[in-house]
Write a structure and sequence with these properties.
This protein is 51% helix and 20% strand. The chain is α+β, with helices and mostly antiparallel strands. Strands 2-1-5-4-3 form a five-stranded antiparallel β-sheet.
């Protein structure tokens, strides 16, 4: 098309040049005035024809782009013009018009799909601009806040003023846990924030999830596990006591009546003493178990101060390899409590390596790429089976014959009191790692 168009414009320009040359020749050679007038009229006609041709092309192109700008795709550019150039131009315009229509239809279908998808998810989705005007709020979000419509964040002030302020102030890629009290009671909301740009508008996208149910389910699961362990331990202690008490009682009864003093033999006395000793030991074991439970539930509040991670690693005198951080790392923590955690983890590692010839324990201090301080206790022992990884932090759960089952539970509780966490990972037959994460 463009090659033909250039040819047509060049041809018409050549005609203009030819008529101009002829007019100049007529004037400078002194030809009859009539010839000069005719040549001048012919030149003006050729110039007008060129301009008209150019304007015709330009007007059709401008009209086409104006239709696109106004999103008017109803125009039909049928190639019925006499000019081959115009017919070709109309044909290409029609193809582009149909293509844009199809792209718009596909875009609308995709938009409807994603809108339907967002409406179906149980998490609340909210998007708004810098002025607080809401672009989209799905049904889950409206149901969560008890609203029929949500067009501006100020509407949330009637629901919860602090929540409305927090939603406006939350930064991109930030995550917050918020307590919200509504018609359905107090709920815990997990709010995640993101940002994106739409044309020249900076938009914020929030996902708001009610995690009360998840927290309740996890709490219930933890309580069930704890109750199972408590029941197991208490029954193991009480059952022998009950059985022995019944046996001792039967020693001194006959047909439901107490026996006489003449029937009490030395052997009977010895059996009685032996049974009472067993009952005493079982009672001591039960008291020790209860004391362990009291210790677990009555941890002291940490007395935090800035302490060196390197000093923490060196304070443990167990035979281990220490990899101190290259730079001075400080954490705000209670040194006694954190040392208790490290001693417990190292002790567990030593016990895990008890039957291993080439046991190695590493104590590592480091800073993560996001600026979080970690202390890692790693051993090359037999590892922890995958099915037990969820159980090791349950209070009183133990796989060792003489273990109390509260060491790891206490350690995790201490880290939680510090605002951090204790995580475990293991590759059976290769290694086990426990990581203290300080926020």
């Amino acid at each position: 098309m463009f090659r033909s168009y250039r040819f047509q414009v060049g041809l018409k320009a050549a005609f203009v040049a030819a008529w101009a040359f002829a007019l100049s020749w007529s004037v400078f050679t002194g030809q009859h005035v009539l010839w000069s007038v005719l040549l001048g009229v012919g030149l003006l006609f050729q110039i007008a024809h060129l301009i008209r041709y150019q304007n015709q092309i330009t007007e059709r192109i401008n009209y086409f782009f104006e239709s696109i700008r106004n999103e008017d795709f109803s125009q039909n550019f049928e190639p019925h013009d006499k000019s081959a150039i115009i017919r070709n131009l109309h044909q290409n315009m029609q193809l582009i018009n149909e293509y844009i229509q199809q792209v718009k239809i596909d875009s609308q279908q995709q938009e409807h799909y994603f809108r339907a998808l967002i409406e179906q998810v149980g998490t609340g989705i909210l998007s708004f601009n810098e002025k607080g005007f809401v672009l989209h709020a799905n049904q889950s979000l409206k149901k969560l806040f008890g609203l029929e419509q949500l067009t501006h964040l100020k509407q949330l002030e009637k629901v919860d003023e602090k929540l409305a302020q927090m939603l406006q102030q939350i930064q991109p890629n930030e995550q917050k846990l918020v307590q919200y009290t509504g018609k359905q009671g107090t709920t815990t909301l997990l709010i995640k924030s993101g940002a994106f740009k739409n044309q020249n508008n900076q938009l914020r996208l929030l996902s708001i999830q009610d995690i009360n149910r998840e927290l309740d389910e996890k709490e219930l699961d933890s309580w069930l596990k704890l109750i199972r362990v408590l029941t197991h331990e208490i029954m193991n202690s009480i059952a022998p006591v009950t059985s022995l008490s019944e046996s001792l009682s039967n020693y001194y009864q006959k047909d439901g009546e107490p026996i006489g003093t003449t029937e009490v033999s030395d052997k009977l006395i010895q059996n009685t003493i032996r049974g009472l000793d067993i009952i005493k030991e079982q009672g001591k074991g039960l008291i020790s178990f209860v004391e362990s439970y009291r210790k677990f539930t009555r941890l002291p509040k940490p007395e935090k101060q800035l302490i060196s991670v390197s000093d923490l690693l060196e304070n443990d005198h167990t035979r281990i390899t220490v990899k101190r951080p290259a730079e001075q790392l400080l954490v705000l923590a209670d040194e006694k409590l954190i040392s208790q955690v490290l001693i417990n983890l190292v002790k567990n590692a030593v016990e895990a390596l008890d039957k291993q010839e080439t046991g190695e324990i590493e104590l590592i201090g480091r800073e993560t790429p996001v600026g979080q301080v970690e202390i890692i206790v790693r051993d090359n022992g037999p590892g922890i089976p995958a099915d037990l990884m969820e159980e090791i932090f349950v209070p009183f759960f133990t796989t060792r014959e003489n273990g109390s089952g509260i060491g790891l539970s206490l350690s995790r509780q201490i880290m939680r009191l510090h605002g951090g966490s204790l995580k475990a990972s293991s590759v059976p037959g290769k290694e086990t790692s426990f990581t203290l994460c300080f926020s």
